[in-house]
Amino acid sequence: MTNYIDKSQQPILGNDPVDLETPQGAQWQASMWKFLLFSALGMALFIIPFQWDGKITILLGVLTDTLQAVLGGYVVYAVLAIVTTSFIGALAVKILRPNLHEGSMWAKLFDVDLFWLGARFLGALFAWMIYLQVGPEFIINRNTGGVIFEDLIPILIPLFFFAILSLPFLTDFGLMEFLGTLSSKVFVKLFKLPGRSAVDAMSSWFGAASIGLLVTMQEYNKSYYSLREAAIIATTFSVTSIAFTYVVAKTIGVDNNFVFFYLTIALTGFIAAIIMPRIPPLSLKPDTYHSGKSMLDEGIPAEYSTYQWAVN
User: Fold this and answer.
1) CA distance 16 to 99
2) pLDDT tens digit string along 224-235?
């Protein structure tokens, strides 16, 4: 009895068959436990809403709020350090041209094209102008640059810190493949998207739209999504999250009818997600991939049921 199933039954990532090993026995059980535990952790972090300290949030939101409280005013200095290092590192790579290994961490961080070098320069320049209160009023004013620097950045820095560390629980332990296989036919027919985007939909609609965008960016960079698919997901799935919708409902005084309020928004977003991919400009986006070819094949072999293939 062979330890591996036939190659023709293996998941194919890319245009050419890949010789992947399917675990058996104890190895299968260990793989299954990793899938179940880490995927459950990912869903708990990003998707499942609950009430905490009088508000509806997700676990990632609790961690973000905690880190934000710990950092306090020091988060401003973290921002200055990040944007300054980002620009100086990229500039040094452009000028000195060190021999960075392609795909290495340093290459990914600092080896950027001229457009992104300019963007990093402007980011660092604006950050220092706002912090030092030097420059044009329309940049440093409390209602323009101040909103970004004092209101958004203290939230986004802790959020992205935890999100980047914990995103693999959603994307790298089988949850996207499992749910994607189960929902592939539905998502292709309704939204013209691969089933893999089901996790994007959940993390955006029930968790936080910014997290859904992070997942989308990561999947596009891996060539699991085409440019058209990434654009559709980033625009139609990034509806208001449950947590933020609750804040809006409470602000306008309709939190007593929150369930109906949110269902109205969700239904509207669902209808829009069906219509928008079929009309310009989204319908005109090309099906091109970051690496030049698709790294995803969601076909189901004839000898497997949909659920069996999802588990495999």
Assistant:
1) 31
2) 999 999 999 888
With vertex at residue 232, the alpha carbon angle to CA 40 and CA 190, rounded to the nearest 5 degrees, is 75
Nearest to 146 by CA among 157, 159, 156, 131: 131
pLDDT of residue 230: 93
User: In DSSP terms, which residues pair with 51 in a beta bridge?
Assistant: 56
Residue 199 to residue 171: CA distance in whole angstroms: 8
Alpha helix locations (H) across 150-295?
A: 153-171, 175-191, 198-202, 209-221, 227-236, 242-251, 258-275
Q: Are 120 and 90 in contact (CB under 8 A)?
A: yes
CB atoms within 10 A of CB 193: 28
pLDDT, tens digit, for every residue of 15-27? 334 445 567 778 8
Cβ partners under 8 Å of residue 46, min gap 6: 58, 59, 60, 166, 169, 170, 203, 207, 208, 211
Average pLDDT for 74-83: 92
Report the 10 Å Cβ neighbour count for 48: 14
Span 90-122, pLDDT tens digits = 999 999 988 888 778 888 889 999 999 999 999
Helix (H) or strand (E) holding 57: strand 55-57
The candidate with the shortest Cα–Cα distance to 34, out of 175, 202, 182, is 175
Copy the structure tokens of residue 171.
């994307």
- Containing 56, the helix (H) or strand (E) segment is strand 55-57
Q: 0.85 exceeded by the pTM?
A: no
| Whether the Cβ atoms of residue 219 and residue 196 lie closer than 8 Å to each other | yes
**pLDDT band for position 284 (50/70/90)?**
very high
